[in-house]
Design brief:
Elements: H1 2-30, E1 33-37, E2 42-44, E3 48-50, H2 54-66, E4 69-72, H3 83-95, E5 114-120, H4 128-134, E6 143-150, H5 158-165, E7 170-171, E8 175-178, H6 179-184, H7 186-199
Parallel strand pairs: 1-4, 1-5, 5-6, 6-7, 6-8
Antiparallel strand pairs: 2-3
Length: 202
């Protein structure tokens, strides 16, 4: 009886080892992953003052689930904490198609094969620093996966704009979630992110 149980236990260990190896090989096949995001703290629409941006919350969950590296897209000039003042700046930047200078760069960008790009939706578009980021690197042959937080607009065609900005990349189905849900309902947020990642093969 003891020998039978020992053989069964060893067999289970072998099967477990096989699945772990398959998982490692699958992760390796997907390539090295970067989660780049722009997020803002301060006064948020319908939420109040936040010390962690809604998009950052989503980015951190994605990074944990896909074992990717996080990179925050930071403009040199921070946006106002006041919601109304930030709206004024964001509206002007969009009108002139500004490309705010960034305070940081991705080290060894070439090593990444898959880049998740996250942002809030401002005036129906991604904030202008996101385009500074997209135009600062060569995305040729890389996979881009957009995700956003919003107040009701969804992705707002930003996935199409990213395709036009990085025409030699491959774009996968993006993810969108209301900022209020991301901030106030962590269980729903994590569940929705998991379902989306499963759909796109991550």
């Amino acid at each position: 009886m003891k020998k039978f149980l020992l053989k069964k236990f060893l067999s289970m260990l072998a099967i477990l080892g096989m699945f772990l190896t398959l998982g490692e090989n699958f992760a390796s096949a997907q390539g090295k992953i970067l989660i780049a995001y722009f997020s803002r703290i301060g006064e948020e629409y319908s939420i109040g003052n936040v010390s962690k941006g809604n998009t950052q919350i989503v980015a951190e969950i994605i990074a944990e689930k896909v074992n990717g590296d996080l990179f925050e897209i930071k403009p040199i000039q921070s946006y106002p904490a006041s919601y109304e003042e930030c709206k004024t700046v964001a509206s002007h930047e969009k009108a002139i198609k500004a490309r705010p200078e960034l305070a940081n760069r991705v080290e060894n960008f070439d090593q990444y094969d898959v880049i998740f790009v996250g942002y809030p939706i401002w005036y129906g578009d991604a904030p202008m620093p996101v385009y500074t980021f997209l135009e600062s690197y060569d995305f040729s042959g890389k996979t881009i996966i957009p995700f956003c937080t919003h107040a009701g607009s969804g992705l707002s065609s930003t996935d199409q704009t990213i395709t036009l900005t990085c025409p030699d990349s491959k774009l996968l189905q993006g993810f969108e979630i209301r900022g209020a849900i991301a901030h106030n309902d962590p269980a729903q947020t994590e569940s929705r992110i998991s379902s989306w990642l499963n759909r796109i093969g991550y």
